[in-house]
Design goal:
The chain has one domain. α3 runs parallel beside α5. A hairpin with a 6-residue loop joins β1 and β2. The longest helix is centred in the N-terminal third of the chain and has 11 residues. By secondary structure, it is mainly alpha-helical. Helix content is about 35%, strand content about 5%.
Length: about 110
């Protein structure tokens, strides 16, 4: 979902989109996704795509060992932009659990682990 920072003109907001960072990355991510509705999402992986950008982010979070409900921007986006509950996500093909891995996290983000 953060990739939408790319649609915001740096000439207006500064680089690297300083205003968005200063106002808070998490609310900015939700606001951008509520304003610019994504029609299709491709994750930088072998094959991973979907039409619900919130579900894609939640699934990717689970793959790297994070709990989407603990991520403020996903929790908020899940209220009105898409789904984060695993049982509400239409997963087709291989199970994402096949690719599950544990990413190293900086200490202040360890509370996001599943």
């Amino acid at each position: 979902m953060k990739n939408l920072f790319g649609v915001v003109p740096g000439a207006v907001y500064g680089w690297p989109k300083n205003v968005l960072h200063l106002r808070g990355i998490e609310p900015s991510i939700v606001d951008l996704n509520a304003t610019v509705r994504v029609q299709f999402t491709i994750v930088d992986a072998v094959v991973a795509m979907g039409t619900d950008v919130v579900a894609v982010d939640a699934t990717c979070a689970r793959i790297i060992g994070l709990e989407p409900q603990r991520m403020p921007y996903l929790r908020e986006a899940g209220r009105f932009l898409g789904h984060i509950a695993d049982d509400r996500i239409d997963q087709r093909g291989e199970s994402p659990s096949r690719y599950k891995t544990r990413f190293d996290l900086v200490p202040h983000l360890t509370h996001l682990r599943a």
